[in-house]
Amino acid sequence: MLWAYIYCYQLTLDSHNRATRRTAAHYQESCVGANHKGSSLPLSTPVVVYCSKINKIVQCNDIAKTEGIEIGHGLAQAAALCPYVHVLPFNEENERHMLTQLAHRLYPLASDIVLDSHACAGGLAIRLDNLTHYYGGHEPLWKTLTQALSESDVRYHFGCAWTIEAAKVLALQKYNTYVCTRDDIKKALNACPLSLTALAPKVIESLARVGITSVQQLLDMPVQELGRRFDNNTIMYLTALRGETFPRVTLFRPLERFDNFLLLPFDVENIQHLTPFVTQQLEHLSHYLRARNLYTSNVAIYIQFREAPPMNIEIQSALPQSSVKSWLPLFTLKIENLVLPEPATAVELKCHQFEEIDTHNGDFFSDRFNDVAQKQLIGRLNAKLGDKSTFQPRAANSHQFEYMTVTEPNVPEYAYACDTAPTFTFDVPTPLTQPTQICFGPLRLNSEWWHDRPTKRDYFIAQTPQSVRLLVFKDEESRWWVQGLFC
Amino acid sequence: MNKPLSVLNNHPHIWRAREQKQNETKFSLGFPRLDKALNGGVASTGLVRIASLTGVGELSLFKDVICQHRTHKLVVFINPPGRLQSPWLENLGLKTQQVLVVKTHTQQESLWAAEQCLKSTACHCVVLWSNTISQKEARRLQVAATHNDALCLLYTPVHRPLSSSSKQQNRPLSSAQASSDDALPITLDLYLQGTPHALSVNIRKQRHGWPKDNIVISHKWTPDNNAIKWAMTHNTLSDQALHSVS
């Protein structure tokens, strides 16, 4: 077996850098940078990631390093060294999110991925030996993987060895060389200090007492010797490190739905300023859909805040689509009237329902484009005016003028012909106040017996002196009402 | 002196009313007198304004235009003055799948929706109810309609002098409005007036043609009692015979 361990040592920082660069580029493109630059950080700011649980700086960028800040410093020390340092909080949950996203990106390239996220940094282990067959050698395989990693813009150290445990030691050692022969791996492992292994500090101490300080000495010892001194877990780890046993691992399985989480590099107060971040997520979505030959007609965006409950924006499209170009206008229309209750800290894009691209229903008639255009139009109108603003009137199962037409889309089509139906009816009948002349009628309509208040109405079509034709009726108390218009 | 004038006369951008453009597609309205005054009917694209009271048969007048052309495309009703009834649409000859109703809250939204519909290329005809329209807005709709091969029917209320008491106060406003109304850059501007037995159509302005007033057409858009009346007047039987059962 051959495993590569990718040690991502600054995921939070990478994501922050990516988002900052992205916004800068976006605003340069759209030439409205001047008033937004204030909220976004320039790229030359020293940035550190601080973990409050252990009171240590866990990640810092190059500029912070030149200021003298190192990983492992406390917050006070960092602030003393560089008073204008920008501090990001470390969040394990977010870090795991980002690692999962990276795994999603790599999954199409490598099938066996193991997620390894622990307290302060995360890593991925990828099994290589079974893939070399498909890629035609070690070099093309590794080139493909590194290409994908550089596209996702993550800084990492890596190591390759016969088991995950051994590869991890090499990655922590920052070995960063691809080796695949047993001798090379052994040579590389021999140079590592014991402190990089996952052995408990107590075990390392007791080993040091008998004069074992490097991995080389440990590997040279016979197992029987070790078995007498250490517990089962340690022995299992050691045999794995030697490449003699292969512990069971849980392989990563990608989600069946799309879920992209993005931590914003700064608090966004204006909802319009979320557009560049959502564009980025929609790009991910379109890659995801393209790779799977899918479309979607439903996208949900969750905006998270520090205190307020998350805001959910559902975007429906009448036509299943996948491209950024078609989703972004819908998003911008949808958010036009929305206001954020408080500054947003993170955006999450979720997509649960997918539709297969059906290659059979495409025909070559002009109606095809018309159908697409109609659905796009309805999608646009609904996005701006609200979901209930467009409807198609349908005939309903009633002979009464007020119940003849329904606007809900999900009712069965009911063929109903009525010569005397008006063009428009009013929501409620109004008393007839004008002088009119009857030109059609009477037509007596009783309401259905199951209605609460049975009515009996004599309908007429009446004409005013201005020649406006009205649908009027006389109720049982001989009062006259106007119910509709004939246009 | 003569030469520059003739050069000017040959300029292709000068349009003369006497040279009727023949190649424009027109949709016939089905009323011979009106079609003749309109040089064959309503243009197939562009903005048409109809000023009338609601309920004088202003929609039924355009029955042939709305129902008989480009039937695979949508007919959109924006901001209608009531609940549109599907049996009436069936009677007119429109399938419900072909109809879309858009409800808006403000006039700006209506105009925006109309423009989107026209630009989408999915619509045959956009029927819009709006109280007023400015020159700029009319121009936008006109351009959107002509470029996308669609027709826009704009229904507006009648702007006419009010009662004599308020006439004096409103005169400057209404005259200013009238002048801006007249100058709308649209294909056709109609004013409909209902009389008890007929409909009078006034062409205020038409592209490539002259305005013409008071074209009276007999227009039936609702069922009437004529059949009963006819039966009553032609009845030769006595009352007794009518009620007898043999």
Short description:
Chain A has 487 residues and is α+β, with helices and mostly antiparallel strands. Chain A has 3 domains: 3-45 and 85-242, no CATH class; 258-385, DNA polymerase, Y-family, little finger domain (Dna Ligase, domain 1); 395-486, no CATH class.
Notes on the protein architecture:
The complex is a heterodimer of chains A (487) and B (246). With 487 residues, chain A is α+β, with helices and mostly antiparallel strands. Chain A has 3 domains: 3-45 and 85-242, no CATH class; 258-385, DNA polymerase, Y-family, little finger domain (Dna Ligase, domain 1, 2-Layer Sandwich); 395-486, no CATH class. In chain A, 34% of the residues lie in helices and 25% in strands. In chain A, the strands form 5 sheets. In chain A, strands 8, 9, 10, 11 and 12 form a 5-stranded antiparallel β-sheet that branches. A 5-stranded antiparallel β-sheet of chain A has the order 16-20-19-18-17, with no helix packed on it. The termini of chain A are far apart. Residues 31-39 and 361-366 of chain A have low confidence and may be disordered. Helices cover 34% and strands 23% of the residues of chain B. With 246 residues, chain B is of the alpha/beta class. Chain B contains 9 helices and 11 strands. Chain B is globular, with a radius of gyration of 22 Å. The relative contact order of chain B is 0.16. Chain B has an 8-stranded mixed β-sheet. Mean pLDDT of chain B is 83; it is low at 161-180. Classes of the chains: A alpha+beta (487), B alpha/beta (246). Chains A and B meet through α15, β13, β14, β16 and β17 of A and β5, α4, β6 and α5 of B. β16 (424-431) of chain A pairs antiparallel with β5 of chain B. Chain A: Keywords: DNA damage. Chain A: This is DNA repair nucleotidyltransferase. Chain A: Residues 43-169 form the UmuC domain. Chain A: It comes from Alteromonas gracilis.
